[in-house]
Amino acid sequence: MRIDIITVLPELLKSPFEASILKRAIEKGLVEVHMHNLRDYTDLSYNQVDDYQFGGGAGMVLMIEPIDKCITYLKSERNYDEVIYMTPDGETLNQKIANSISLQGNIIILCGHYKGVDQRVRDAFITKEISVGDYVLSGGELAAAILCDAIIRLIPGVLNNETSALTDTFQDNLLAPPVYTRPSDYKGMKVPEVLLSGNFPKIEEWRENQAYKRTKTLRPDLLKNGGTGE
Predict the structure, then answer these.
(1) Which of 14, 12, 6 lies closest to 138, judged by CA?
(2) What band does 169 get if pLDDT is binned at 50, 70 and 90?
(3) DSSP string covering 112-124, please?
(4) Domain assignment present for 229
(5) Cα separation of 216 and 218, whole Å?
(6) Cα 19 to Cα 34: distance, rounded to the nearest angstrom
(7) What CATH number is attached to the domain comprising 81?
(8) Which domain holds residue 50?
(9) What is the largest CA-CA distance in the chain?
(10) 20 to each of 2, 15, 16, 35, how far by Cα in Å?
(11) Domain ends where: 152, 182, 206?
(12) Mean pLDDT over residues 9-30, rounded?
């Protein structure tokens, strides 16, 4: 997979890709992540990429021309499956969306900034709009990092345990069951006996029941979207 991120603040995005799972995925050659500074695609003085909005109003808007130049250049080099715009009014990111995007070959992620982008960008170039929640960030960079983390960890070979991602919270519209590690008894707080039994069918049954109970208590809305019953 190749991910090209268009941003006005590439330095804000570097850190997540220089550590942990994302760094290992890049080093293994399982994913390429390239950042493109939008200011490199403007001919205006002071590398200007934004302007006042027509009709008045507070806040600056990213102009269409530098975005057009950047996307056109990238598309001249290869084909892309999606051009994604990170925006608060997009479709809320969930596991189903992450699963789907992780199967793509090449994607572009456009980070919004200021008051957003010229609507013509969204009309002409964007194939998918994604939000990370009903709140507003200073820009789309951190949201883009969240999206990248969510999809890269699903690529085969990224996680040491290939089945780990398949048992994550939300994969079956259920929250993950409780997990425990050593010691089995800490100050009188004991691990459930079934987990120490070695009876793996019973353990799996316990985990499924716990996942359902936790979901029913904490996120009953997920059960309405296809979660399994008891």
Answers:
(1) 12
(2) low
(3) PBTT-B-HHHHHH
(4) no
(5) 6
(6) 16
(7) 3.40.1280.10
(8) 2-152
(9) 70
(10) 18, 10, 8, 19
(11) 152
(12) 93
